[in-house]
């Protein structure tokens, strides 16, 4: 009996692996011929949000923040500050769990948790970059698109800001989508160094929708 159910269990797993590798139904890097990169943050708002906003304001940069329902409820002042500063708000999920660990009804954008007010967009990112087949189908049905990234700032590791900035800048190219996080203590310093490095290379950091992203050729890697 167990063997009869095995193919049914393997199909979603294989679909997940193939979908992430191919970036099916998702948005990724933008036009490599334009001197722009997209700057995105997952997981916020958080107690770190004011520091990030200060760095962004100092550099005159706007970004895209993929927020969670729980963080919006816990830090409403941070959410209001993001809106007031003109940053783009998108959905990162109501439950910060991998899509394969959620039932289908909890993996779509209706459960994304982005507030009804604010500068909402049409994209969402999945926690840990995990997109199940259900996620992609439900996102498309809601006229949203999954957004991926091609450069991970790795601010969830123990490395210092200078090291992370150097490693990140080494991977950035025109059209890149850069992923950072709203929460780690190292991120404000990393962001400051990263923006300075982008400026030196003649690259402008913009919100994701101003890149704009295109169909992704590959899936994400890392923690989100």
Strand content: 15-25%
In sequence order, what are the helices and strands, one letter per element? HEEHEHHEEHEEHEHE
In the residues, how many domains can be counted?
Answer: 1
Structural class: alpha/beta
Main sheet makeup: 9 strands, parallel
Number of helices: 7
User: What is the level-2 CATH architecture name?
Assistant: Alpha-Beta Barrel
Mean pLDDT: 79
Query: Which residues form runs of ≥5 with pLDDT under 50?
Result: 98-119, 217-222
Rg, alpha carbons:
17 Å
How far apart lie the N and C ends?
38 Å
Number of strand segments: 9
Please name the fourth-level CATH homologous superfamily: Glycoside hydrolase/deacetylase
What is the CATH class?
Alpha Beta
CATH fold naming = TIM Barrel
Helical fraction: 25-40%
Principal-axis shape: globular
Protein name: Polysaccharide deacetylase family protein
Domain NodB homology: 35-206
Task: Please tell me about this protein's structure.
By secondary structure, this protein is α/β, with parallel strands linked by helices. The chain has one domain: Alpha-Beta Barrel (TIM Barrel), CATH 3.20.20. Helix content is 36%, strand content 17%. The protein contains seven helices and nine strands, in the order H-E-E-H-E-H-H-E-E-H-E-E-H-E-H-E. Strands 1, 2, 3, 4, 5, 6, 7, 8 and 9 form a nine-stranded parallel β-sheet that branches. Helix 2 (49-59) packs parallel to helix 7 (187-200). It is globular and about 60 Å long. InterPro entries: Glyco_hydro/deAcase_b/a-brl, NODB_dom, Polysacc_deacetylase_ArnD. This is Polysaccharide deacetylase family protein. Residues 35-206 form the NodB homology domain.
